[in-house]
Write a structure and sequence with these properties.
The complex is a heterodimer. Chain A is an alpha/beta fold. Chain A has helices spanning about 1-25, 55-75, 85-100, 110-115, 130, 155-160, 185-190, 200-210, 235-245, 260-275, 290-295, 360-370, 375-380, 390-395, 400-405, 415-430, 440-460, 465-480, 500-530, and strands spanning about 45-50, 75-85, 105-110, 160-165, 165, 170, 175-180, 230, 280, 300-305, 330-335, 345, 350-355, 430-435. In chain B, a hairpin with a 2-residue loop joins β4 (about 100-110) and β5. The longest helix of chain B is centred in the N-terminal third of the chain and has 19 residues, at about 1-20. Classes of the chains: A alpha/beta, B alpha+beta. The interface of A and B includes residues 85, 460 and 461 of A.
Chain lengths: ~525, ~250
């Protein structure tokens, strides 16, 4: 008996070893999604929703309430929430799950990431057909909730979800970057805030703030620490500076055009101010909010979706109360090169629906994804930070208008810095842009930030930033992010694997041989046993 | 034949136990630095952003990702937090508690945490496992920062509510995480009339670790002893690796 179990175990092990090989080799993608005529109300569906929050309990509660409200309307659709606090973890987990066809049903994503997901066959459901579907589309007749129509979506934000000529996502929330300014310190230095910040102005004030007294304390704040200009997301910094200059960054064909003379100029400027200590970054120093609120920074650039952390009375903070300094916070668009033509990035979470073998399951997923566009969800989530709703319907909702009119009533829901940050984007939606999306665009974005990070670090370490340095930097960043491989390194599961390697064939044959041997041995033993008398 | 097999298995088992057993602290062993290598005092005195070369011993591995590792390391005189050092997955597997490494990198400070970044390392012969230093009576003092990144212990603390609802711990700092979502655990404990926040870093002690489970089982009012690394983030933020009932 024990021998039988041993043989069984060996067979099972062999079978288990075979499974991944068969799974890996020449795997087929999913069939194209076709919209079902109707949702099968007699069936039960269980769908997964991978959601990102800003480590914010209120945002989690809003997701949970949205799920609960949706399930009350569609009792046959159960939504399981999986929480994440950063996009890169979602991205990595999705990539891992594409190979095993265990992607979530609905997922918060960035279009850059979706472009990579799309390198697999029919991994993500195209949404154009669903948008226009009379029954279940935007504002559809068979929906159990009041959804926005196509005309009620903010077109600019919807366009950001186009990948390879089709919509593969719906926008969920939008933000941009803002420059949170310590106006009190700026005026103490003898400056007045201009209507629009320029890069030259910010650099000039930042340098002026570096003066120290005889004890080595900064004259401006009397402290040992002062970093007048801190940038949270240096990839955004580089991208926006290039766009403002009309300089090349990339194109839709996936060519990285970032290594140009404009980039050299930007990096040289960054180097000169990093050298004096007037400029630093989140990755090098810490969160801009921590310095701003402690009176150690004048210009803190961060997302409008981080507004609740900014200012003397910020409701959220990582520094202790005794470190806060009292000052007036002004929320402004990021610095510009051309004040007549301001440009700023559009960012924020979108939602994609993953394709499945069962079109009914995809339809159920779409119904939940679309529910996230309803006024109640849009308004509630936008109020958690300096986000703005992505539908005109929500923006025109009386509750939202009332909310936006009450800036400064308290330091919680109506925290003025947060509402001003949201207002900044509402007023500048037409000035926002996004970068071309393709398989590999996420790497180029990382590379853009790396150029600033490396330059800043090098200067702080006493290195000289000159043409030779920049040549070397361009080469190393190109290599690190494989920008010379046209996105090949990013491809996911699409390529046919070709004929099976000889080694794999040999392994499979040997395993089959083992199996046959085990079977033969078992058979012989059985025959022998039967031949024996009891 | 059977006797041989039994003997072989018994010896294998014995060797396995020997290999698994935690190496006893070897504080008295000589810790001679190689040529061109800084002592801890020299490292401590080195300016931020300067290149540093240290020989140190791995005390815990926090994470490996994308050919970068984050390590808590220590020699007999002090600790070095090694952030995102270049490290292949193969080399990461070779690093155990006590493994001696030579690190070349840059001294940096991030939100108060002094660390070595942008580094490379090589594995050397030698082993040292630090014994935790009891810093309970230093928690409220300015002296605490001198123990930054070291393996330390806290004795006889009382678990305090982590939020207004009286939870003993939170998933993420504000409770925005949930079980099964790779969330850090935050909990408060008091001693000497002061309350401090402690963290179970998910990447250091995951959901399967004893420390993670112990915190999930905490109740407000429990008396506990703890061990962990004295990490810093805008003030002290110990990364706890062991939680037991107070002795």
């Amino acid at each position: 008996m024990r021998r039988f179990f041993k043989s069984l175990a060996l067979c099972l092990m062999a079978a288990l070893m075979l499974l991944p090989l068969t799974a890996c080799h020449g795997s087929r993608g999913l069939p194209e999604f076709e919209i079902p005529e109707t949702l099968d109300e007699d069936r039960s569906f269980e769908i997964s929703f991978w959601a990102k929050n800003d480590t914010n309990k209120t945002q989690v509660s809003i997701y949970q309430k949205a799920i609960s409200d949706f399930q009350a309307l569609y009792p046959n659709i159960k939504v399981n929430l999986r929480l994440y606090t950063d996009y890169s973890r979602i991205y990595n987990d999705v990539i891992t799950n594409i190979a095993t066809q265990t992607t979530p049903n609905v997922c918060i994503s960035y279009p850059d990431h979706i472009a990579t997901y799309l390198s697999g066959d029919n991994v993500v459901a195209p949404l154009d057909g669903l948008f226009a579907d009379e029954k279940y589309g935007l504002g559809g007749t068979e929906l159990c909730y009041d959804s926005p129509t196509m005309d009620e979506m903010i077109p600019k934000f919807l366009d950001e979800c186009i990948v390879n000529g089709q919509h593969y996502a719906i926008p969920y929330m939008r933000s941009t970057e803002a420059c949170y300014v310590n106006k009190t310190y700026l005026e103490k230095l003898g400056y007045e805030l201009p209507e629009t910040l320029t890069w030259d102005f910010v650099w000039e004030v930042a340098e002026a703030a570096m003066a120290k007294d005889e004890n080595g304390n900064f004259r401006l704040n009397g402290q040992k620490v002062m970093i007048p200009f801190i940038y949270k997301s240096t990839d955004n910094m580089m991208i926006q500076m290039l766009y403002q200059l009309g300089a090349p960054y990339s194109n839709a064909a996936g060519e990285a055009l970032i290594f140009n003379e404009h980039t050299r100029d930007i990096l040289s400027t960054v180097a000169s101010h990093a050298a004096t200590g007037a400029f630093s970054t989140f990755k090098i120093s810490s969160y801009p909010a921590n310095f701003l609120n402690a009176g150690q920074c004048i210009f803190a650039v961060d997302s409008t979706a981080g507004a609740t952390w900014m200012g003397s009375y910020a409701p959220l903070s990582d520094i202790s109360e005794d470190k806060f300094v009292d000052f007036e916070t002004v929320v402004m668009p990021i610095p510009q090169f051309d004040t007549q033509n301001p440009r700023m990035i559009s960012q924020g979470p979108s939602v994609c629906v993953f394709n499945k073998a069962d079109p009914q399951e995809v339809l159920a997923s779409w119904l939940f994804a679309q529910f996230l566009l309803t006024d109640e969800v849009q308004i509630a989530y936008s109020q958690t930070e300096g986000y703005v709703p992505v539908t005109e319907k929500a923006r025109q909702n009386e509750a939202y208008i009332d909310y936006m009119a009450r800036a400064g009533e308290d330091n919680g829901l109506y925290y003025d810095v947060k509402l001003k940050a949201a207002k900044l984007l509402l007023e500048n939606t037409d000035n926002t842009f996004v970068t071309p999306v393709y398989n590999g665009s996420a790497s180029l974005r990382d590379a853009a930030g790396q150029l600033i990070e490396n330059t800043t670090k090098s200067v702080r370490r006493g290195e000289t930033v000159d043409d030779a340095y920049l040549d070397k930097l361009f080469d190393s960043v190109t290599s690190l992010y494989r920008l010379d491989q046209s996105g090949a390194a990013q491809s996911v599961g699409k390529a046919e694997l070709g004929p099976m390697p000889t080694a794999s064939k040999a392994l499979l044959l040997s395993l089959a041989g083992c199996w046959l041997g085990i079977g033969a041995y078992g058979l012989i033993t059985l025959i022998k046993k039967r031949g024996k008398k009891p | 034949m059977k006797k041989f097999v039994v003997l072989f298995l018994a010896l294998s088992l014995a060797f396995s136990f020997a290999a698994c057993a935690k190496t006893a602290p070897a504080e008295d062993a000589a810790d001679v630095k190689g040529e061109g290598v800084m002592t801890y005092a020299e490292y401590d005195a080195a300016a931020l952003e300067s290149e540093v070369v240290v020989e140190t011993y791995v005390q815990a591995k926090q994470s490996w990702w994308n050919d970068q590792a984050t390590l808590y390391t220590q020699d007999k005189d002090g600790a070095y937090f090694i952030y995102n050092i270049a490290c292949s997955e193969e080399d990461y597997a070779k690093l155990n508690v006590g493994t001696k490494i030579k690190v070349t990198g840059y001294k940096a400070e991030w939100a108060g945490e002094v660390e070595i970044i942008d580094g490379t390392f090589e594995i050397l012969e030698g082993e040292y496992v630090a014994a935790p230093v009891d810093v309970t009576d230093k928690l409220a003092s300015d002296e605490l920062v001198k123990f930054q990144n070291q393996l330390v212990s806290f004795k006889g603390l009382t678990v305090e509510p982590a939020n207004d609802e009286g939870a003993a711990f939170l998933y993420n700092w504000d409770g925005s995480g949930a079980e099964g979502t790779d969330s850090d655990l935050y909990f408060n404990a008091s001693v000497g009339g002061n309350t401090y926040t402690f963290v179970i870093e998910y990447y250091l002690c995951g959901a399967d670790s004893d420390a993670y489970k112990a915190v999930q089982a905490l109740k407000v009012g429990d008396k506990i002893d703890m061990e962990g690394f004295l990490y810093w983030y805008e003030g002290v933020q110990p990364h706890i690796t062991a939680v037991t009932a107070a002795k």
